[in-house]
Each structure stands twice: as C-alpha cells, then as structure tokens.
Predict the 3D structure of the following.
Amino acid sequence: MLQDMMPGEQYAKFTLSGGVFTVTDHLSILYTGASGLPKGIPTYSDTTFNFRHPFEAYKDENGVVDTVLLDNGLKYFPEQLSLPNFIHHFKPSWAKALVKYHPEYSYYEYCLATKKSQSFDTKLRSLGSFTEAAALGDTGYYLLLHQDPFFNNTTFGVSYIDSLLGVYRKQMYTKMHHYNDNNSILATAITMVVCRNGGSCTLDTSTGYNYLVSTYLNAACSRDEVWKNFLSLYLAAKQGYVQELRQRYAIVNGVYTECMSKKFKNLSKYGFDNECYHVNRTPHCTPAHYDAYGDSKQPCSSTTSGYYATKIPRFGSDADIPFNSLTASAHLLDSVHKYINDAQEDLYDSNCKSYI
C-alpha cells in the first residue's frame, strides 16, 4: 500500500507533458480538485484527501519531521510544495503520511485486529502430533473452539461486527458437531484415516469423543493423522467466517473493494447491493440502516465502481478454500487436506505479511 501512494503509482498518478505536470485521476493523492481519496469520485466534494493534507507529518527515513530546502533558500514542509516540487523531492518515507488514504486501509486494520487469531492458527499448524495437541489441553478437540482468539477475544469496536462474531461462534460450534452428513469434524477426520482406501466404509461416528478415540485410534500414527486432518478441516471451516467478517468489516467502513480489477463481480455475496446494515452511516435504505450500495463514497457503489475497475487490489479477493462443507469421499478428503492447509497459509501471507 505504501508503494501505491508514491508518485506515478496507482493512487498517485500524474502526467508530464512539455514540462507541465497534470493530474486528472480523481483517485490520485495528487489530485486537489473536487474529489479525493480515500473514496474519491467526482460527486464527492471533500477536497481534503490529498497530499496537501497528510494524515500525519511527513517524516524522513529517520522518523524526523521533514522539510525541503528550495533554491530560494527557504525551507518548506512537503505539503506546502508545488506539485512539481513535491514530486521531484518525494521520499519513500513520505508515503507513510498518506497510506491511511489508501482505499484498502481498513483491510489492513482488520489484519491487525485478527493477528492473535493468525498466531493461534500458526501455532496449531506447528503441532505435528496428537500428543502435542493434547498437551495444549485440547484432548477433547472441541476445546479448540473455546481457545481460538478469533471466536473469543477479537473485538473491532463496531457493534454490528462484534455481534456477528457471536453469531459465527454459535454456527462454528454447530459445525464442529454436524460437519458432514451430521458427523462431527472429528468423526470426519477419523473417516479420512480409517477409510483412506475408499469404497464402502461404515463407522459408528454418532458417538462422542472418548468412544471415537478409544475405538478407532489405537495406534499413535493414526492419531497423528487424525489430528492433521482435523486441523485442516477446522481451519477450512473457520476461514469461511474470517473471510465473511473481513468483507463485512470493509463494507461498514466504506471500503468494500470486490469490484476492483474485475470485469465480472458478485456484489450480492455479502449483501452489499441488497442488504441494509445496522450501522450509523448514511445513506439509509430503511430508517437508521445503512445502504452501502447507494453510498457514493464506497469504491463499489452503483456510481463509483467504474473508477476502481482498473485498480489492483492489494488484499486480494476471497480465497477459494475447497470443501468448506465436505461431502466428498474419505479417499478424496485425504488427498486434499494439504491443499486446504496451503491455501490457508497463502491467504495469510498475501493478506497480512505484505499488507503495508
């Protein structure tokens, strides 16, 4: 995102012809007309979202408030410079003062708010055996849900979003027990191990944890495989909620970007173009409810999506996590669990490690 805010990049575009600098892109941080970032479109008259109004003081590479000495012998703050001088003297460190104007900044904030959850997932992936997992106190597997920071200790300070987390936790609890044909996630993970060769395989998977473990997991190696498969299934199910909350968080913060760089888009996936959100934002589609699609400050609104169609999203779209609700054969499930795990790791790498 910092790169995007540097002169010449996608949110700081300008043209130079005959020695004259011109800015016509309404989404450029260099544009000072009747629009500007972070939701800059011609019908939005706020002119403060540009390089002359940094979110914080411009600083040099050492974190010291910066000034520029011009040929007239006077020093100026960067925001006081003419457009040519600002571009000519621009330093990469200045981008930090502008990055909060990036249309996807709220996605970065979401990443920060869920870092404990990401660390928790990474810790779980590091556990290669059933014994290591049990040492965490998760001998019943379902305790995993109660320890997961995403479902228990994450808050966003937005009542609508925080209330959704409570709903998702209940849904995840149900999914833990009724994941595939009314079998629990644990029963499904056991099926993936015991019935790995495919064909007909009937297990008494309707019973509880202790029975399942004592009956089917006598060997340490099979327990380790079950843990690995269980974790893949758990993370795949969890990721659906992580992704949905991420997009709804973006919507209620006015920065939903699913229309970026897409010829075809599905704006109904999270109710963006047909749902009223219980947040205190305007415009309204019912009394006191927010009409996101009708909000001209939204990148993907009915009047603004065209301005963002050529922009490259830095946080990507929803990851295609396979088998969120698994009905495939045990043999097929066994072959894809690594792909599920890899998809989870790639998602975090692209969305949180390279966000800024």
Summary: Residues 220-252 form the longest helix (33 residues). The beta strands are 15-17, 20-22, 68-69, 75-76, 276-277, 284-286, 289-291. The radius of gyration is 25 Å. Confidence is low (pLDDT under 50) at residues 38-45, 319-351.
